[in-house]
């Protein structure tokens, strides 16, 4: 299952749906999604011509913000966050701290029956799971210096730690990961049993081997069909 398909399925449950995407890049996913309101945030987005046309003719309300997500949430430009969202898709900087910030901030603005979809939760190799501290540039430097053994061009970073940490500190959230499209984390309000990793620093130092040993349990990994059944 592709991320666009999952997001659309969730938005289609609502009339007048409102959608926020953090990290939009060339707007490929944002362009595919149909929603009454679409908001995109990215400090370096580009818009393809087809998308410009659609925006100009006003088929949908689309607002794009050239900002880092932390600034977007701090500033709440145009009061746009007050709209509230049915689905937030998080796909900005793929590291633990930033994906956690984005998730905690988004939780303040989703409806009680809303969803957060977190991309990149299930890296399939240590190379893809290479962590960075602050930016994409760090990965670029490592690639140029041939520092990442087994590099195949795909990068998920350590977003997986956000799933483990939230599953350890938030018993008011139901969290699972659909084993598709690099790991689609699904986060919604609901009761759950806690995992025992409740300190940020403790989770931050976990390595890829730790994930590899117990991935199904740590990520609450489910097949696409099981994921869809849970979302019914
Ligand atoms: C993987 S791409 C997004 C792809 C897009 N979601 C899609 O599915 O078509 C990640 C994007 O996140 C952006 N990004 C990096 N750090 C960010 C941040 N702190 N806040 C928002 N976006 C960020 C990058 O500029 C990049 O365009």
Describe the protein's architecture and organization.
- It holds the Pfam family Methyltransf_24.
- It comes from Algoriphagus marincola HL-49.
- InterPro entries: SAM-dependent_MTases_sf.
- By secondary structure, this protein is of the alpha/beta class.
- The protein has one domain: Vaccinia Virus protein VP39 (Rossmann fold, 3-Layer(aba) Sandwich), CATH 3.40.50.150.
- The chain has 10 helices and 8 strands.
- Strands 3-2-1-4-5-7-6-8 form an 8-stranded mixed β-sheet, with helices on both faces.
- Helix 5 crosses helix 7.
- The longest helix has 12 residues.
- It is globular and about 50 Å long.
- The site of S-adenosylmethionine has 17 residues, from strand 1 and helix 2.
Topology:
Blueprint lengths: L2 H9 L6 E5 L5 H5 L4 E5 L7 H8 L4 E5 L3 H7 L9 E6 L5 H12 L2 E9 L17 H9 L15 H10 L3 E6 L5 E6 L10 H5 L3 H12 L1 E2 L1 H7 L2
Parallel strand pairs: 1-2, 1-4, 2-3, 4-5, 6-8
Antiparallel strand pairs: 5-7, 6-7
Helix pairs in contact: 5-7
Quick summary:
Keywords: Methyltransferase, Transferase. This protein is α/β, with parallel strands linked by helices and about 230 residues long.
């Amino acid at each position: 299952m592709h991320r666009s398909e999952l997001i659309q399925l969730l938005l289609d449950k609502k009339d007048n749906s409102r959608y926020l995407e953090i990290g939009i890049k060339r707007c490929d996913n944002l362009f595919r999604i149909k929603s009454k309101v679409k908001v995109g945030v990215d400090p370096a987005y580009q818009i393809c011509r087809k998308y410009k046309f659609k925006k100009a003719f006003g088929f949908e309300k689309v607002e794009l913000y050239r900002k880092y997500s932390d600034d977007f949430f701090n500033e709440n430009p145009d009061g746009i966050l007050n709209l509230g969202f049915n689905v937030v898709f998080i796909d900005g900087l793929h590291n633990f701290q930033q994906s956690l910030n984005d998730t905690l901030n988004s939780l303040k603005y989703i409806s009680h029956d809303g969803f957060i979809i977190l991309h990149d939760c299930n890296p399939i190799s240590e190379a893809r799971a290479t962590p960075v501290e602050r930016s994409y540039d760090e990965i670029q430097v490592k690639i140029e210096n041939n520092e990442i053994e087994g590099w195949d061009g795909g990068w998920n970073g350590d977003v997986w730690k956000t799933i483990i940490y939230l599953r350890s500190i938030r018993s008011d959230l139901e969290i699972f990961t659909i084993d598709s499209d690099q790991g689609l984390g699904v986060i919604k309000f609901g009761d759950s049993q806690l995992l025992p990793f409740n300190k940020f620093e403790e989770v931050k130092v976990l390595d890829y081997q730790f994930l590899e040993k117990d991935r199904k349990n740590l990520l609450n990994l489910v097949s696409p069909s099981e994921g869809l059944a849970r979302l019914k």
